[in-house]
Design a protein that fits this description.
Elements: H1 2-15, H2 22-39, H3 50-61, H4 66-78, H5 83-96, H6 103-117, H7 136-153, H8 157-160, E1 161-167, H9 175-193, E2 199-203, E3 206-212, H10 217-235, E4 246-251, H11 256-267
Antiparallel strand pairs: 1-3, 1-4, 2-3
């Protein structure tokens, strides 16, 4: 009902000759860029794309944002920007315009990003297109390195490392909701553990992080729970995340082969 009334008001403005000033879109764009560069965007020089203007104009004019959002998502994917960073960037647009998260805009960005990602030279065996995290296949290679290091140092892997398992699964989600859940979790995990940390999506709302046993597990779990909660709220996807998430440490076995079997068991 609210959306219907908003559309009627917008039509009245159009019939009355009302038009959003061009500088309003430019002001929003500049505020968006400043907020993104200051908080989430890693390369200020490559933030701008013409789709940015199209999206800010659609927001200011209260038009359908889907085409511009998809175009921007596609551009981000083609440029090698991670899905988490792309969504964080659009979240800054919400903040700049004092708006609540728009799930349709997020969905359009994610759909466009997936299409753009498919055109990149990155091998599908390395990155999961939904979360931006490593695939299980790639994590097995990282585990091989861990077991090889253990042989050289003489410290068995079960004593040095473990798998933190994160379960945010809920039943009966649509394909888009599963995508949004994965993107949100990719953001929360990356913010908690940092780039380059061995972690992967196992699918169906299950994620794993390879970590050292002497790390402050309790602090990390608390921090991750907070990150997941904040990410869900900021992106408007709390309803499709298990709350609270289930977190536990899975001991690693003595051999790499057994570790691969463990990952396969967790995926079922």
């Amino acid at each position: 009902m609210t959306e219907h009334l908003d559309r009627l008001v917008h039509m009245d403005h159009l019939h009355a000759g009302y038009a959003v000033p061009a500088d309003a879109a430019e002001t929003l764009r500049d505020s968006w860029r400043a907020a993104s560069v200051a908080s989430v965007w890693r390369r200020p020089g490559d933030w701008y794309h013409p789709a940015v203007d199209a999206l800010t104009e659609a927001v200011c004019d209260e038009r359908d944002v889907t085409p511009a959002a998809e175009r921007l998502g596609r551009a981000r994917g083609e440029a090698g920007v991670g899905i988490g960073e792309a969504i964080d960037d659009v979240a800054c647009l919400y903040l700049s315009d004092d708006r609540a998260p728009d799930l349709e805009m997020l969905r359009a960005v994610a759909v466009g990003w997936a299409e753009g990602y498919e055109t990149t030279p990155i091998t599908p065996d390395v990155l999961d297109p939904e979360s931006g995290l490593a695939t299980t296949h790639y994590l097995t290679h990282r585990l091989r390195e861990t077991y090889g290091r253990a042989q050289r140092t003489g410290v068995p892997v079960p004593r040095s490392h473990g798998l933190l398992v994160v379960d945010v699964a809920l039943d009966d989600l649509t394909g888009w909701q599963r995508f949004a859940r994965s993107a949100a979790m990719g953001r929360a995990l990356t913010q908690t553990f940092g780039d380059g940390h061995p972690m992967a999506s196992l699918g169906n709302g299950l994620f794993v992080v390879l970590g050292e046993r002497d790390a402050d597990d309790e602090w990390l779990r608390t921090e991750l729970r907070h990150r997941i909660e904040r990410t869900g709220l900021s992106l408007g996807v709390s309803a499709i995340l298990r709350r609270p998430p289930r977190l536990w440490t899975e001991p690693l076995p003595d051999t790499h082969r057994a570790a691969v079997q463990l990952l396969s068991t967790l995926q079922r």
